[in-house]
């Protein structure tokens, strides 16, 4: 195409989403909201991976789909991390009766 | 044309992400997050990775977002105040940190800071074109990967990335078992909690008649601390 999307546009979108996710992790006090912001960051990294895969040169030793496979692995890790994180939050909620990360401040009990 | 489409999709995605971190209602934040996931799937389609877009919708929207909704439902705060936003003293440094990270990343993208000369940024104005498949011939390499991504993903996962595939399966099993083990609630027998103070009350009441109000006060206190 004559007017294709430049690679840097995808990178700007991924960088902005990552910054928004990071701000969300630092701002929010609810543990589930922090998990949501972490998911935003992981998705931004995925967009970065697939953009560099599509726009990059051919690498014969890594196969034709290296970026997509890595993005699938990141998807897997993110999904399992959310599962374990929700379990932990449920446990902390039973202990402190709040889903507030400022309350999770002691290791005993 | 496709540039306009990308700008619209990126704007919607960033608005959804901002809505996620700024929404006070947690359910609204989760719905904004679903919108963001769908936008990222649209970006994957623009990058000609349609299989990954379908996978994104299925896994993130269909599983992760639903799991987050369940977590929101099960951890309703019972104090009545709204703890889902930070105190005002921490909001500004958080936003400043996010802005600083974006500034550093944008500087790196604009100045095209790569790793030495290993990858030329000059070839990024347009994507590498795929070779045209001749009549009757099967595609190879990246053309096949983009045109028949599901088949190539399956082949790659089973041959070149087999170890990564197996380790990912191990990770998923560990996460499954771990999540169940963490959130498992022990069955507390309620009758055992009631029997012990009642027996103390029974033995205490005949021995000390005038002091029975004290025993009656002590027994609920014993059950409270149990």
Could you describe the 3D structure shown?
The complex is a heterodimer of chains A (109) and B (226). In chain A, helix 1 packs antiparallel against helix 2 (31-55) and helix 2 (31-55) packs antiparallel against helix 3. Helices cover 71% and strands 0% of the residues of chain A. Chain A has a single domain (7-96), classed as Helix Hairpins. The radius of gyration of chain A is 18 Å and the shape is elongated. In chain A, 58% of the residues are buried. The longest helix of chain A has 31 residues, at 66-96. Chain A has three helices and no strands. Chain A has 109 residues and is mainly alpha-helical. Chain A has helices at residues 7-27, 31-55, 66-96. By secondary structure, chain B is mainly α. Among the domains of chain B are: 1-75, NADH-ubiquinone/plastoquinone oxidoreductase chain 6, subunit NuoJ (Four Helix Bundle (Hemerythrin (Met), subunit A)); 142-184. Chain B starts with a helix and ends with a helix.
* Sheet with the most strands, sense and barrel status of chain A: none
Structural class of chain B: mainly alpha
The number of helical elements of chain B comes to 9
In whole angstroms, the N-to-C terminal distance of chain A is: 62 Å
Shape-level CATH architecture of chain A: Orthogonal Bundle
Approximately how much beta-strand content do the residues of chain A carry?
Answer: under 5%
CATH topology of the domain at 1-75 in chain B: Four Helix Bundle (Hemerythrin (Met), subunit A)
What is the average of the pLDDT values of chain B?
79
Query: What shape does the CA trace of chain A take?
Result: elongated
SSE sequence of chain A, one letter per element: HHH
Shape of chain B: extended
Instruction: Report the structural category of chain A.
Output: mainly alpha
If classified by CATH, what would the architecture of the domain at 1-75 in chain B be?
A: Up-down Bundle
Unreliable spans of chain A: none
Oligomer: heterodimer
């Amino acid at each position: 195409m004559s007017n294709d999307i430049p690679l840097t546009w995808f990178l700007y979108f991924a960088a902005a989403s990552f910054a928004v996710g990071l701000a969300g992790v630092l701002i929010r006090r609810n543990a589930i909201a922090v998990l949501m912001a972490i998911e935003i960051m992981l998705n931004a990294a995925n967009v970065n991976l697939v953009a560099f895969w599509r726009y990059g040169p051919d690498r014969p030793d890594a196969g034709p789909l290296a970026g997509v496979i890595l993005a699938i692995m990141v998807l897997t890790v993110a999904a399992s991390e959310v599962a374990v994180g929700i379990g932990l939050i449920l446990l902390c909620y039973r202990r402190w009766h709040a889903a507030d990360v400022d309350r999770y401040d002691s290791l005993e009990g | 044309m496709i540039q306009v489409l990308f700008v619209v999709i990126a704007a919607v995605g960033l608005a959804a992400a901002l809505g996620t971190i700024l929404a006070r209602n947690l359910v609204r934040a989760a719905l904004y997050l679903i919108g963001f996931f769908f936008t990222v799937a649209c970006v994957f389609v623009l990058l000609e990775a349609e299989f990954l877009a379908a996978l994104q919708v299925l896994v993130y929207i269909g599983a992760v977002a639903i799991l987050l909704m369940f977590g929101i439902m099960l951890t309703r705060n019972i104090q009545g105040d709204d703890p889902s936003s930070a105190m005002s003293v921490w909001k500004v440094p958080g936003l400043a940190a996010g802005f600083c990270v974006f500034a550093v990343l944008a500087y790196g993208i604009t100045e095209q800071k790569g790793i030495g000369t290993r990858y030329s940024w000059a070839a990024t104005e347009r994507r590498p074109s795929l070779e045209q498949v001749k009549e009757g011939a099967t595609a190879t390499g990246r053309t096949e990967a983009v045109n028949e991504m599901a088949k190539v993903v399956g082949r790659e996962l089973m041959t070149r990335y087999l170890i990564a595939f197996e380790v990912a399966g191990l990770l998923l099993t560990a996460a499954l078992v771990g999540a169940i083990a963490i959130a498992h609630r022990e069955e507390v027998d309620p009758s055992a909690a009631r029997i012990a103070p009642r027996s103390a009350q029974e033995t205490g009441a005949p021995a000390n008649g005038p002091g029975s109000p004290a025993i009656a006060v002590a027994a609920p206190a014993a059950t409270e601390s149990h």
